[in-house]
Specification:
The complex is a heterodimer of chains A (291) and B (389). Chain A has 291 residues and is α/β, with parallel strands linked by helices. In chain A, strands 1, 2, 3, 4, 5, 6, 7, 8 and 9 form a nine-stranded parallel sheet that branches. Chain A is elongated. The N and C termini of chain A lie close together (12 Å). By secondary structure, chain B is an alpha/beta fold. Helices cover 57% and strands 11% of the residues of chain B. The chains are: A alpha/beta (291), B alpha/beta (389). The interface between A and B is large, with 73 and 81 residues.
């Protein structure tokens, strides 16, 4: 069975990286081979190495653009030394950097190349945020629009096939339960669907837990007017109440959202109970939707 | 060349930068509103393709032309005003081509070239460059005392600032010279071996890209190369404008380790390039009263009218708030340590900013940011007299 790719995206700050970690942890605990791919060259949790010779302890690979470009060139020319010669040319590097769609295509080719070796496994791509996420997945079309023949068109065509194969590739759009974040993620989902990329259920992340029942909330809202020490609790529960109504709205529109609670302990490395439960839920829903 | 209209001083510039999701857009809008209330003529521009600025200002839409949002006190002595606009990358690029091209035919030919269209439409790479072009246009108009810019999420200063030099670098390369006029370029440079290698490489590239692309690239490059000198000159003006004492970058982050890391790195890069950077702003902190309780204890006894279970409820909520507060405190200390200075704290609103009134509430939160703004503006065109707070 071929590797399955999950491409996480969403508005900046929606918690993509945390969710990519949770998904990887959860899937690994289910016994699946997992690789997490980070496109952020500042990510220090993985190995900065274009080759997945052996997965790092965290099972994360970080994109190294130069190696990725070399790998793509080597596969296009089928001769490593030509790739090296081209990379030594400053002219070539300038063209590769500025030509539309090329940087994105190189990134996508790296994702495909590195991930495809993970037979039967799950490849968790910690993708870029909204605008860049669409540009990245559109790059095969951009490149095909400019170069309709030649080896690069062939490579673009192959990538296009991966992206539009729902058995192998799915997007996972993450949002926080606020109107502006949801608006943006709905726009994003539409754009990804237009590219032919199949979607997993939407994720609502960082949802505040509603602890108060209606009577307690009503009391808290009143009492906090006179008692400063209750203001924090009111803020917390009003936020939770807003989140709950956003989720109700989503569910009434027949959207099968995956709800992940806010982890108050922060993004610490200690796998607390809440974190494990969130990883369990996310990986279960994602793997279930894939099959 | 000065960017200001004849007879006027250049406007002050505040450039909000940082990674995605830290609340740049809303803070930029609130800062702009606050400045307009103090009597300045302010424009706020967003580059974000998402309609965040319009949402924050409670507007249905925003486009490339500055829209009057608020005239704080009509009929009063306050000359302040707030305009908002959203960058149209392709439109700004087209206008620049129109202005810089030798004639209409060339301009139309450039705009019809698929390479140009792809470059102009790619929000990823050309948006920051075009934003600064638009900023240049706004500054030249002489209509504003202060321009507040909300930039696209960026991890590196290079993403914000280097697009023109990248493009210029591309057009100045030998590969491009070869595309435009292979025979002359090959004859003009280097040894016979180097020429042969270059020609061979071009052949290889063509085999990979197909012949059509090379033809389109050379047509684009031939026309566009003549614009590049003016483009580079304009981008130098923009850089000078950003490096002037009336300009300041404002870096926004959230109180967590990852966000600190990204913000500090960007700060270092901007300082390294000689730009002024304001103290780091840490945004969306838990509201102040919440942390007061979180740091202390829950109250021992509750009023008699409290419904059953409130004791347990409050203990549970306060323990979560306490964890939140601890995370934030650690992150802020780390930020202060690493940036060797004060960190401006902005606390969360109860809800989202969705109207001018909401923004006004947030603006009122910006006590420290107001001082920063005052500093940036003080050296600007208008004598700064009022207090922002």
């Amino acid at each position: 069975m071929a590797a399955r790719f999950v491409y996480l995206t969403g508005k900046g700050g929606c918690g993509k990286t945390l969710l990519a970690e949770l998904l990887a942890e959860g899937a690994r605990r289910r016994g699946l081979p997992v690789l997490r791919l980070s496109l952020d060259d500042r990510d220090e949790t993985g190995s900065v190495d274009g080759e997945p010779r052996k997965p790092t302890p965290t099972g994360t690979l970080v994109l190294d653009r130069r190696t990725a470009l070399r790998n793509l060139l080597a596969s296009l020319f089928r001769l490593g030394f030509i790739a090296d010669r081209l990379l030594d040319s400053s002219s070539f590097r300038a063209v590769a950097e500025a030509a539309p769609g090329v940087t994105e295509l190189v990134t996508l080719a790296w994702i495909e190349q590195v991930g495809s070796r993970l037979v039967k496994g799950l490849v968790v791509v910690d993708g870029p945020s909204s605008g860049h996420a669409v540009a990245l997945l559109r790059s095969p079309q951009t490149v095909l629009g400019l170069a309709s023949s030649g080896a690069i068109a062939g490579a673009a065509h192959n990538l296009e096939q991966l992206l539009t194969d729902p058995r192998r590739f799915r997007s996972l759009v993450v949002s926080t339960p606020e109107d502006f974040s949801l608006n943006e993620s709905q726009l994003l989902s539409t754009e990804l669907a237009e590219l032919g990329v199949a979607a997993l259920p939407p994720v609502l992340n960082a949802v505040y837990p509603l602890h108060a029942d209606p009577a307690q909330l009503a009391w808290l809202e009143q009492a906090a007017n006179d008692d400063q020490t209750l203001v924090g609790a009111r803020w917390h529960q009003q936020r939770a109440r807003r989140h709950a109504s956003v989720i109700e709205q989503l569910e009434s529109a027949d959207r099968n959202a995956i709800v992940i609670p806010f982890l108050f302990g922060g993004n610490g490395q200690q796998p607390g109970h809440e974190r494990m439960a969130a990883a369990e839920r996310l990986s279960g829903r994602v793997l279930g939707a894939f099959s | 060349m000065s960017v200001a209209a004849p007879g006027t001083a250049p406007p002050s510039l505040l450039v909000f930068a940082g990674e995605g999701g830290v609340g740049k857009t809303t803070l930029a809008a609130a800062t702009a509103l606050k400045a307009s209330l103090s009597g300045l003529r302010v424009a706020v521009m967003t580059i974000d393709p998402a309609p965040r600025l319009a949402d924050a200002l409670g507007l249905d839409r925003l486009d490339d032309e500055p829209l009057l949002v608020a005239n704080p006190e009509p009929g009063s002595d306050n000359a302040g005003s707030l305009h908002a606009l959203r960058l149209d990358t392709t439109g700004t690029f087209d206008r620049m081509v129109d202005r810089l091209a030798d004639d209409n035919t060339v301009a139309e030919r450039i705009k019809a070239n698929p390479i140009y269209q792809a470059v102009a439409a790619s929000t990823g790479s050309s948006a920051p460059y075009m934003a600064f072009q638009r900023l240049h246009e706004l500054a030249e108009s002489g209509r504003w005392d202060l321009i507040v810019v909300d930039t696209p999420p960026a991890l590196h200063a290079e993403e914000l600032l280097s697009a023109p030099s990248r493009l210029a670098g591309l057009l100045n390369t030998r590969a491009v010279a070869l595309l435009v006029d292979p025979a002359r370029a090959a004859a003009g440079h280097g040894t016979r071996l180097a020429r042969a290698t270059a020609t061979l490489l071009l052949g290889m590239v063509e085999r990979v890209t197909g012949a059509g692309l090379v033809g389109q690239v050379s047509s684009f490059v031939a026309d566009f190369a003549r614009l590049i000198e003016s483009m580079v000159e304009r981008s130098r003006d923009v850089e000078a404008m950003l490096a002037a004492p009336t300009s300041c970058f404002v870096l926004v982050s959230r109180a967590c380790a990852a966000s600190n890391h990204a913000g500090l790195a960007l700060r270092g890069e901007l300082l390294g390039r000689g730009f002024a950077v304001a103290p780091m702003v840490t945004n969306r902190l838990t509201p102040r009263p919440a942390t007061v309780v979180a740091a202390g204890e829950s109250k021992a006894d509750l009023p008699a009218d409290a419904p059953p279970g409130c004791r347990e409820l409050l203990d549970r909520i306060n323990s979560e708030l306490k964890q939140l507060h601890e995370t934030e405190t650690v992150a802020i200390a780390e930020l202060e340590d690493a940036s060797q200075g004060a960190v401006l704290r902005v606390h969360d609103l109860a809800g989202e900013a969705g109207s001018l009134e909401d923004l006004g509430l947030l603006a009122a939160e910006l006590t420290e940011l107001g001082e920063l703004l005052a500093t940036a503006v003080r050296s600007g065109p208008q004598e700064y007299s009022g207090s922002l707070d």
